[in-house]
From TrEMBL:
MF terms (GO), sorted A to Z: ADP binding; ATP binding
Compartment(s): Cell membrane
Ranges of residues in domain NB-ARC: 557-729
Similarity comment: Belongs to the disease resistance NB-LRR family.
Residue ranges annotated for the Disease resistance protein winged helix domain, each copy included: 813-881
Source taxon at top rank: Eukaryota
Biological process, per Gene Ontology: defense response to other organism; defense response to virus
Protein name (database record): Uncharacterized protein
Coiled-coil residues: none
InterPro entries noted in UniProt: Disease_R_plants (IPR044974), LRR_dom_sf (IPR032675), NB-ARC (IPR002182), P-loop_NTPase (IPR027417), WH-like_DNA-bd_sf (IPR036388), WHD_DRP (IPR058922)
Length: 1278
């Protein structure tokens, strides 16, 4: 569309007044008697203009316009028409001039024909008038019109604006479509008010009855008209794609504010109808009241939602404010359930009248509260802001139960999963505790009920310690069922999903049932047995141990040689060789290989193999070992076990060199019991231990470190698959490609390769069949439950209960994804998966959880090259298990964006969505479509949305109904102001990771009092964080692309309140510091911060002496710093010897700094520094780095990336504890100093770039091998 306005909304570009020649023409015409256009004539001109627009749309105007031109002209003329309807009553010279222009324009439309008229219209008259209107708008303030309209003018204005509201969706479809629901609400409200005013015009309503609202009608019609004008103005603007996103966001916010402003007028009309007009005998009044009552539930509900969001700007936490919020929650629960046919039909309108009156009271209270805050010096009496909400709520609750509501259906008809009751119970109680501590208004309504449920279930859970022996199973099942009912009821009330029935009937009934069971429990517990209180792992599943005999062995040659060397040489004392790894990796197979190796057999006097598995009778296991040692071959019966077997075994082994394999050991206690009889004499005896648990291997360690078994390489995987399928034959060439792909998809796990190889071996060796196997690989794996899933189930069952959901949560990430442990910790905490323990901080508990998960061997741990931060990855098999288990337990699910809504009664707690913009539409992305979404979507606690490809906005959807969310992660999708405002209403959020393009987060974010992690990728240049964000006391981690605490262009810097300290903040990343900004006051607000990433940004005109490095020494807990310097001409500009680091610092990364020997000496004196990374740094102007008098006492890792220096002098004492040296693209450096070869702690040198540095590193490696006799130094180059 060709548009006439090159300027953007709200961004005037100059001018101001209408051109002088226009004023001159005006005075000439006034003198001639032709320039004074009366308001009557002007209104007729508007009617004619609208008529022309309508006739041109219907094709009745014979002008040579193509469709685009016709559309543009129609839009421009509509804009002109709206403008004059709004401002024709303004009687200044400029408006008179404009009215003269529009009158001439109308005359042109109706009194000239042909191409000449069209050319004049398109190229002169309309553009000229639009420019003059633009100048007029920019030079006047129309925030509130002072002109009072006459009765006739008001009627005409009401009708005209209604026409515009009906027309705008056709010409402004792109702007209105994302906000169509709100726009239709505006049409509905405006139409009702216009119809009500018509009752007054027709004499159906007395003037005295509505006199007090007529002024509000004047303001309302002006506000709606101005909104129409702005919509048209936006449609006419020329904008790029980025501005389009911003304008849509502004329009949506404007509409929301408009609704909050005008719906109170409708509330007054509702009040008049239910009081003054209730007894009216007028048929028209009766019809209008029915029309209003029918529309009122939707109008009231949307108004209260918008009012609730707008109250985020009222920064007060007074009792009055909380009472208002609680009443809004209560009213919204009622209004949301009105369409659900839960109210007696003959009582509906009576209930609505009460709800309307309470909504009106809330509206008045909010208005007065807002006025109080705006006029603190003339404080209005606070009694106007009071609302007796608790009393009103209790009264209405009684009437709802006994008068208005239909009795609910039996809640037992709902389906509740029962597969792992204790797991669910633990998660529920943690969640209830979080709700009680959340400070959320929605919880205030039922806080007492939540407390009763929590106390009752905690009491009953205390009897779950040993269910099979101590607690009646039927009673246990009933308790778990009630726990599900309680959670469902509480969540349904909070998210307003049939919340009214749950609030009035089902939750109180569930509480009564819990009370009855509490009274019943003591009589059902066996008095002859003590109670076991606590949580123990569930009984592990029994699986059949596969034999290792005859298994095909591929790979692990180096590991085999290492174990044999450990078995046949080394210390004379007993040593333990532990083989640790995930299930199915081949631990037992490897142990069996070395156990039967000839050199091993010949080396030992006696050998014994004991598969421990799930056997917990240590004497029986010792008897098996004894029988092998003495050569007994018969099967062992229970009656054959000797009570003195431990002593007999000790005597039999004494004086002999023995090798004993303890295969598949699960716990330390069993290890201690089994090894107690083994003599500790110096005969070079050995024990081989295989386990999935690292803690068991570490407990058993004597001399040798545990061997952590790796996955097979792709080549080894293919080799194993070929031998499993073809034996000693070779694979046909036609099957090579598909076969190698099958092997690759098994991801190096021998168990899977053996399983799939068995399937293929039973089929014909045809390519089509192999392709079918490849395409159905997942189903083949998952169908073999006995051989695959139960292998993982065994490890899962041995996890402590608190760790099970933490493991399952890993499947919410895509397969083959590397998971940052630091990020995972934040997510675990936000999901409520951390069980709080006295005397233990959250950080300490998270470290324990990570260690326990690593020990289980169900995760694979990697370390980053530069940052050394550990990351997790799980095998596809473990991922599949966790995903299946999570779906069964309704913990979370993974779906595509075009997937239909689930039809199950219960949605999972969490959901991961892989968003596809090609499949996405309002019709099929039902999760966030308010019309089509499954109501149980509202019960989500965690939501992740991943989108591949380009970043795009996401305006047509809503998030405000996901009111239980604790964790929200949306990547590659921009959330703009309206959606961000909705995010700010998700008061239970603990973890937030979003993308946006705004200059500041909305005030509603001050509601997120439970937020612990805030991660924002802002595609705008920089974001300014308001002080309200820093009032979120629970914040632990803030990470942004780039943000400032102060606005760089502000005349006065924002001042944080003296007591606004974030005591819990540990990580702050993305802070931008400009020029000489004093940061001491900022950092004092974060006294316990441990990790800081920031950038110093300067302009090219900033003098070097004004650039100051921040005073970080005020942060006594700081352990990690990532500092970056940005500024034009940085190499010549930033020279500073003073860097203020705290003594606690352990990790330091500096990028783009000019460092001197003095400054590096200061860094070296940091007593705890372990990791130093210098990137794009200049040292001494690119010359010599002399470290002969400098010592980094504790430095273990040194990384140099694009560092400019040509010579390096180092002594052995410079890095006494250095373990890793990494040098990348240091092109000016010719060699690595030879003295690095004398550093005993050095383990590796990594080189990327210059060949001479590689040669230098290899020379050091040769020197170390020659001096120590051990080729221990690892050198890597790329």
């Amino acid at each position: 569309m060709s548009r006439r306005f090159p300027r953007k909304l709200g961004l005037p570009t100059g001018g101001g007044l209408i051109q002088a020649n226009s004023i001159t023409a005006l005075h000439v015409n006034l003198e001639l008697g032709t320039g004074n256009v009366s308001s009557t004539v002007l209104r007729k001109d508007m009617v004619n203009l609208l008529d022309f627009i309508e006739r041109s749309k219907n094709g009745r105007v014979q002008i040579a316009l193509d469709m685009d031109q016709a559309e543009t002209l129609t839009l421009e003329l509509t804009f002109i028409s709206v403008f004059f309807h709004l401002f024709c009553a303004v009687l200044d010279d400029e408006m008179i001039c404009l009215s003269y222009e529009v009158h001439n324009l109308v005359q042109l439309l109706f009194h000239q024909k042909g191409d000449v008229m069209l050319a004049k219209l398109m190229n002169h008259s309309v553009p000229s008038l639009l420019n003059n209107i633009e100048s007029y708008i920019r030079s006047h303030d129309f925030s509130e019109s002072s002109a009072t309209k006459t009765e006739d003018h008001l009627v005409e204005h009401l009708d005209a604006v209604l026409v515009y509201l009906q027309y705008l969706p056709k010409c402004c479809a792109e702007l209105i479509f994302p906000i169509m629901t709100q726009y239709e609400l505006l049409q509905n409200v405006y139409g009702n008010l216009r119809d009500f005013h018509e009752l007054k015009v027709n004499g159906c309503v007395e003037y005295d009855t509505i006199e007090h609202v007529l002024r509000q009608f004047q303001i309302m019609v002006q506000s709606v008209g101005f909104f129409c004008l702005i919509l048209l103005r936006c449609q006419l603007d020329e904008r790029d794609e980025n501005d389009e996103i911003l304008v849509r966001s502004q329009v949506e916010s404007m509409l929301a504010n408009l609704l909050v402003d005008i719906i109170p007028v409708e509330l007054e009309v509702m009040h008049i109808c239910s009081t003054n007009l209730k007894a009216s005998k007028s048929e028209k009044v009766g019809c209008f009241i029915k029309q209003l009552q029918k529309a009122s539930p939707h109008i009231l509900r949307e108004y209260l939602i918008h009012l609730q969001e707008n109250m985020a700007n009222i920064a007060t936490d007074s009792t009055s404010t909380r009472n208002i919020h609680v009443m809004i929650e209560f009213l919204l629960i009622i209004l949301t359930d009105v369409p659900n046919d839960v109210i007696h039909h003959d009582k509906l309108f009576v209930l609505l009248e009460r709800v309307e009156e309470l909504t009106r009271e809330v509206s008045i209270c909010v208005s007065n509260l807002d006025n109080n805050l705006r006029n603190e010096e003339n404080m209005i009496d606070k009694r106007y802001a009071r609302l007796d909400s608790l009393e009103n709520i209790e009264l209405l609750k009684k009437d709802l139960k006994h008068v208005f509501l239909k009795p609910p259906e039996d809640s037992s008809q709902l389906y509740f999963p029962m597969s792992d009751g204790p797991l669910f119970m633990n998660l529920l109680l943690r969640n209830l505790n979080d709700l009680l501590n959340s400070n959320a208004y929605s919880v205030d309504l039922i806080k007492e009920e939540i407390m009763l449920v929590k106390e009752g279930l905690e009491f009953l859970r205390s009897f779950f310690g040993n269910v099979e022996q101590e607690f009646d199973k039927d009673l246990r099942t009933r308790v778990i069922g009630l726990a599900y009912e309680a959670e469902h009821a509480i969540n349904s009330i909070i998210v307003r999903d049939h919340g009214l029935l749950h609030l009035i009937f089902l939750l109180p009934d569930t509480i009564e049932k819990i009370k009855l069971i509490k009274e019943e429990v003591p009589a059902r517990i066996s008095k002859s047995k003590g109670l076991t209180v606590g949580n123990t792992p569930s009984k592990p599943v029994e699986i059949k141990k596969s034999s290792t005999t005859g298994q095909i062995i591929v790979g692990f040659e180096e590991e085999t040689e290492w174990i044999i060397r450990k078995l046949t040489s080394g210390p004379s004392e007993v040593d333990v060789i532990s083989i640790v790894g995930m299930p199915g990796l081949g631990k037992t197979t490897l142990a069996y290989r070395v156990f039967n190796n000839k050199s091993v057999v010949d080396h030992f006097d006696v050998r014994a193999w004991c598969t421990v598995d799930q056997e917990h009778n240590e004497k029986k296991l010792l008897q098996k070992i004894f029988n092998q040692v003495v050569g007994l071959k018969q099967t062992l019966n229970e009656d054959d076990i000797d009570e003195d077997i431990a002593d007999k075994l000790r005597k039999e082994l004494f004086g002999k060199r023995y090798l004993i394999v303890l295969d598949d050991l699960w716990d330390i206690e069993t290890w201690n019991e089994l090894t107690r009889p083994f003599p500790q004499i110096q005969r070079r005896s050995r024990i081989i231990l295989t386990s999935r648990k690292r803690e068991v291997a570490l407990q058993g360690k004597h001399h040798s470190d545990p061997l952590y078994l790796r996955l097979l390489t792709p080549e080894e995987s293919w080799d194993l698959l070929v031998k499993r399928v073809f034996g000693e034959e070779r694979c046909p060439d036609e099957l090579l490609v598909v076969g190698e792909e099958i092997a690759r998809k098994c991801a190096g796990l021998p168990l899977l390769l053996d399983l799939i190889g068995g399937v293929i071996a039973r089929q014909e060796k045809k390519k089509a069949l192999w392709i079918e196997v490849l395409n159905n690989l997942n189903s083949l794996i998952l169908n073999d439950e006995e051989e695959v899933m139960k292998v993982i189930q065994l490890s899962y069952d041995h996890l402590p209960n608190h760790l099970k959901p933490c493991l399952l949560y890993l499947a919410s990430y895509p397969k083959d994804n590397y998971i940052k442990i630091s990020e995972l910790k934040h997510l675990w905490s936000s999901e409520g998966l951390v069980e709080h323990i006295e005397m233990k901080s959250v950080d300490e508990l998270l470290e324990v959880y990570v260690d326990e998960l690593i020990s289980s061997s169900l995760v694979i741990v990697f370390y980053g090259i530069h940052d050394r931060n550990p990351i997790f990855r799980i095998h596809d098999l473990v991922h599949d298990f966790c995903l299946i288990k999570s779906r069964n337990e309704h913990l979370f699910d993974v779906i595509k964006s075009n997937a239909p809504s689930s039809s199950s009664d219960l949605m999972p707690r969490a959901m991961t969505i892989h968003y596809d913009q090609h499949l996405h539409s309002d019709e099929n992305f039902v999760l966030f479509n308010p019309e089509k979404q499954n109501p149980y979507v509202k019960h989500l606690i965690s939501l992740k949305v991943y989108k591949a490809g380009d970043v795009e906005s996401w305006s047509p959807n809503h998030l405000r109904h996901l009111r239980l969310l604790k964790s929200l992660e949306i990547r590659q999708i921009l959330l703009m102001d309206p959606l961000l405002n909705e995010v700010g209403m998700l008061v239970h959020l603990r973890y937030l990771n979003i993308w946006t393009k705004v200059e500041a987060l909305p005030p509603s974010f001050s509601n997120l009092l439970n937020l612990e992690t805030l991660m924002v990728y802002n595609s705008a240049s920089n974001m300014v964080l308001s002080p309200s964000i820093w009032s979120l006391a629970k914040l632990r981690h803030v990470h942004m692309f780039s943000f400032s605490v102060f606005e760089s262009h502000a005349d006065e810097q924002t001042v944080l309140e003296e007591d606004s300290k974030l005591e819990n903040l540990r990580i702050l990343s993305g802070l931008k510091i400009s020029d000489s900004q004093d940061t001491g006051g900022i950092f004092k607000r974060f006294p316990n911060i441990r990790s800081l990433r920031f950038a110093i940004k300067t302009s090219q005109y900033c003098p070097a002496e004004e650039i100051c490095f921040p005073r970080l020494d005020v942060l006594s807990e700081l352990e990690q710093v990532d500092a970056n310097f940005h500024g034009e001409g940085w190499k010549d500009k930033y020279q500073c010897d003073l860097y203020y680091f705290p003594l606690s610092l352990k990790i330091l990364k500096m990028t783009r700094f000019d460092l001197s020997s003095n400054s590096l000496s200061g860094i070296a004196r940091l007593p705890n520094l372990e990791n130093l990374s210098l990137q794009e740094v200049i040292i001494e102007g690119g010359k010599e780095w002399n470290m002969e008098d400098v010592t980094f006492e504790k430095l273990k890792i040194l990384t140099l990336y694009h560092v400019s220096f040509s010579e390096w002098k180092v002594r052995e004492e410079s890095f006494p504890m250095l373990e890793e040296l990494q040098i990348e693209w240091c092109d000016e450096l010719m060699e690595i100093p030879d003295s690095f070869g004398d550093i005993a702690s050095l383990k590796s040198i990594k080189v990327l770039g210059q060949r001479q540095l590689r040669d230098s590193a290899l020379k050091i490696k040769e020197y170390v091998a020659e001096m120590t006799g051990d080729d221990k130094l690892v050198v890597m180059w790329y």
